Prior knowledge:
The chain has helices at residues 5-11, 63-70, 87-93, 134-137, 156-170, 190-196, 225-243; strands at 19-21, 27-29, 39-41, 48-51, 54-58, 96-97, 100-101, 106-112, 118-122, 142-149, 177-180, 203-204, 207-209, 216-219, 252-254. By secondary structure, it is of the alpha+beta class. The chain has a 5-stranded antiparallel β-sheet with strand order 4-5-10-8-9, covered by helices on one side. Flavin-adenine dinucleotide binds next to strand 1, helix 3, strand 6, strand 10 and strand 11.
Amino acid sequence: MPGSEAELAGLLPALSDPVVLGGCTNLLLSDFMADYPKFVSLRQMHSILSDPPYFRAQAGALLSELIRAALPFSAAPAPLSGIPGTVGGALNGNAGAFGAAIGDFVKSVTCMDSSGKSLSIPASECGFAYRESIFRTNRNLIIVSAEFEFPPSAGGEERAKEILALRRKNRLYEQPSLGSFFKNPGNDFAGRLIESAGLKGFRIGDAAVSTRHANIIVNLGNATASDIAEVAQTCKETVLKLYNITLEPEVITYGFDI
Ligand SMILES: Cc1cc2nc3c(=O)[nH]c(=O)nc-3n(C[C@H](O)[C@H](O)[C@H](O)COP(=O)(O)OP(=O)(O)OC[C@H]3O[C@@H](n4cnc5c(N)ncnc54)[C@H](O)[C@@H]3O)c2cc1C
């Protein structure tokens, strides 16, 4: 858990294949990885500098804290309210909801390569798309911080309250989960396909397809990572067999090939 960019730069050359942890809200690590010696967490690098409409956040800051800092000046990030995890994790997967995504507000991302060399990447070169970025495809790039611009507008805090109320009303996240497991394919919805394949409630061990939304796999108590992976694999195979559509995980997995 490096506390500064200098400490991170000193650490990286010794780690050939580190796994970067953000808030771990979107990561499925194999049960056998508990002893993996090369986890890097940036949670101690969590400062947020505010100079509206510009904001600079370190990767370990919570996304919710960045949004809270911006809302008095801008309603634009309100749709992202309620997405758990860190700024680094959000940038990695271009997290989004209700028609907005974090990449919409990025000016540049500062990251480090595996040798500890720092580089600044303008938003136009970050490859932001639906749950995609160059950081997702290139696991050697570690996001250190990013600069954001939130266009000035009023009513941000009220809009965020409405979004949070909507998320609570949907009651999708009352049981532990990793959020949506699969990306929506093309113009379809992963949840619709899994549900129409008859898999709502399908269970292995303590992992089950949520009865509220079929694209969420919930932990009913003591699910192992393997239980969750097996449920996901069954969803993927069944949808492929019935509809000839290949579901791609939104969740990042290590030690599984889903
Ligand atoms: C209840 C619930 C609701 C959710 N709702 C939404 C939603 O509405 N919209 C949405 O888009 N997502 C949603 N998610 C998924 C998840 O919250 C987001 O993807 C989030 O942005 C992940 O952030 P994290 O810090 O937890 O990342 P992690 O899970 O820790 O990591 C995710 C990936 O990012 C990488 N990573 C993390 N930090 C860095 C870094 N500094 N540099 C490089 N790579 C890094 C990791 O190695 C991993 O590959 C939800 C999840 C849950 C559990």
